[in-house]
Amino acid sequence: MAHTAANHGHDAHDHGHHDQESLKTFGFWLFLITDVILFGTLFATYIVLRGNTNAGPTPEELFQMPGIIAETFILLTSSFTSGIAVLAMHRGNKQQLIGWLAVTALLGAAFIALEVTEFVHMVHEGATISTSAFLSAFFTLVGTHGLHVSIGLVWMIGLMLQLRKRGINPVTKRKVENLSLYWHFLDVVWIFVLTVVYLMGVM
Q1: How far separated are the first and last CA of the chain, in Å rounded?
Q2: Is the dihedral of CA 108, 109, 112, 117 positive or negative?
Q3: Which of 42, 55, 126, 132 can pair with 141 through a Cys bridge, CB separation 3.0 to 4.6 Å?
Q4: pLDDT 10s digit of each residue in the chain, 203 long?
Q5: Nearest CA to 63 among 203, 198, 189, 191?
Q6: Rounded to the nearest 5°, which phi and psi values hold at 175?
Q7: Which part of the chain is the Heme-copper oxidase subunit III family profile domain (predicted)?
């Protein structure tokens, strides 16, 4: 009888824990929705202001497409490797999971390095955030995306340390799935940045 009661208590605890994880996942979806609204606003602002160059440098003069294409390739590859990490997690392979997350983090860091290089080059050309309305909108939109990638990198490193210590459990599983979702979301946003900002800018 006592054994049955103990089992019942354990089941109730597991159920409560599962509910808590579901609630946290729901909260994460709400965060992503607010991020969609944020980026939507920034894109709308950029589209309105992109023609206001204030006699300063234009997109055609500033954008160096080989670097942008490299950034795109790196970020798309990192989205693929984060997907492989999730597959490794579902197979219960902790080492492969951490390994693929590390590859994803390295690719993300390479993307940020290229973006910072691009920004530094633009500032040297006299194109700063205060030069024109177009550049204010550009730096705010692209910089916000870069900030999100940087936050993702910090989150990824913290998660790798947690996985090394605690292994794959319901909590780390939920965190890996949310992180992968976040990373894919940033990839989709970047495709819009590539199209709306860079490709339309040089056409």
Answers
A1: 76
A2: negative
A3: 42
A4: 545 544 555 555 566 667 787 898 899 999 999 999 999 999 999 999 999 999 889 999 999 999 999 999 999 999 999 999 999 999 999 999 999 999 999 999 999 999 999 999 999 999 999 999 999 999 999 999 999 999 999 999 999 999 999 999 999 999 999 999 999 999 999 999 999 999 999 98
A5: 198
A6: -65, -40
A7: 26-202
